């Protein structure tokens, strides 16, 4: 029985997922990110110390373990890849070269009740850079370039990366005279869910804002621009604060570098904040054109205080692609197709059971030259063997003989062929993923 | 802190693992196996119904779940990939094409006490074929060919695949007059651990064998051959039984097909049985030359009764490569190395901070042509920037100028170069994994 929140793809969908993961990985590697994989479990204390996530954790128990496992020995499944990465860096900092750029493509688990497209097990593809002591800001400008290149390499609708900087919000709120900036941020973050009126009311009630202050917070949140013009619009609100200046300068850099690389890729969007507590500066989200109503498919930002060893800090910046979420949306809309449901390019037909070894040798020769090949499972009538290929979308059937021939079962064209030299068209060698 | 039994590789080791996984996957696909990934969890009842594995299961609990979760709702992490695969097939049989060949490369978990190189979280790479009703025997002969091709594609010592057939053992024991064949099998399976005398004593004590019967069982277990000569040696023991005949015929086919494909790859080894209960015919193990003392690095066999829907059976045959086990052994002996610890082929040096955008454009051009490139993190002295590359094993440093130049920091050779045309030697494009 399917288990709610634990999606499984059929083989043709898994072929699509794998090709998408190959392209993600390839783009990450083009930028020099090294691969990493961490264990699926972390001590419960590590998981609980980062953010308000206690409700989301799956704990592990051995079936026959005694009742008295101490809390510090309790293990839970990781709920993201950033917390395990920070733990890995502090544990192995003596063996790593800094700045350390890594990517990590793994399942994560959240023990929440599944609802409206939320999964309990899902795949994420993350990049992060950490450094010892301080991390140059230009790494914040690199994240949108990598994500932009990833999405451009996939057969999916164009993506827009939304960027903000928490220093803008915090500095602005502080400059306005609001002390509990975290509470203001949490409240404004609900804007899309509850609307401006309820946000204003909540700011007045829970963050001690006046009507005028609440109005200013809303006006800041309305600002959105695809170039650095947002800076003047913020200035026009008349609030000043050193942290606000720093945030505006940083966000302008992100937007300008991205516009050099790929115009239209990013948008400064001053209402986004990201829920998790550990971000300290730049934050990123991504919307897919035509899928905006489903929300963001990436999540990331700068975190200056997530990892430390003694007095040494390891600040970082990173972004995570919600691969299962993205594929779930696209599969749900029938927006991705693949040319066949198996890797096989050629089926070798078996004329009679006593000739199977001969067919194996043909298959072996084709495989030796990189052509995925199966031998027909039975020596049935050729019509049935062709049907075996047709049902799976396999383009070619090979007939042993004097000489051998190979048939393109789409066109019906059949030609003489030698397994040591015949080559299929490059486009037929692997399954082809396309949009729609 | 490291957690015992949950291994983690450093980035350079993960590069090795990834390249090995790429080759495993590529070989699996050359034989037409389609990719599949199943969820990490199964209902506890599914896990417990297959074999004596109760002690090995990790159960999941949500941190804030109520105490009264019913047993049928309990989830556990899968301990292998065969049980989830059988479940997937019965659940989706209406959507699959049979015979269904799939590969699956995933982590599995076992909640046992870690000891002597046993892991609690480890990576397996499995292939299986299942069919509706009956599965042609020739698929049993394919498994060693795939595994042989996989191992030949890796920079590791030669592998020998050991094959047996449970029908030989069961038929022989029955022909001898021993009724509890399962008990005899379990006892003989301990031969390597406890030696022939204790096995004989245990056969007499727990399986009701006479001295003569116990002696015959041991003589069968001693038989080992790289060709079909084992058949005559079994016949010479004078036991007859129809199931024995069937087993001998099947095993001879496996050996003969493998010898056609790659002489020396397989060995009939009549003592191996595999612990799990679900195998019904062929069983496989694999030893790595020079690493025999560490035991088998693959495990597999034919299972005719693992999956069924109503009266329809889905018999299968498969084999699993213990990837973490293999890598753990090889890393432990320093038997694998990689030419660099990052994917990066070129570092673009930054002459001064105001020229970073220019450096980004060079990097972008190189990446656009598939060359993994990083821009130096700081505009330090060039000596420091070269050191950045050298410490990671990155072969080339690019110097922007009029004209640009690129330096091979291994040879010191520096030449003029254009980011739109320059190409590194093919061998330098990706990290190279090699033996020793």
From TrEMBL, chains A, B:
CDD domains: HisRS-like_core. It catalyses: tRNA(His) + L-histidine + ATP = L-histidyl-tRNA(His) + AMP + diphosphate + H(+). GO terms for biological process: histidyl-tRNA aminoacylation. It holds the Pfam family tRNA-synt_His. InterPro entries: aa-tRNA-synth_II, aa-tRNA-synth_II/BPL/LPL, Anticodon-bd, Anticodon-bd_dom_sf, His-tRNA-ligase, HisRS-like_core, HisRS/HisZ. GO terms for cellular component: cytoplasm. L-histidine binds at residues 80-82, 110, 124, 128, 274, 278-279. Homodimer. Belongs to the class-II aminoacyl-tRNA synthetase family. This is Histidine--tRNA ligase. It comes from Actinoplanes utahensis.
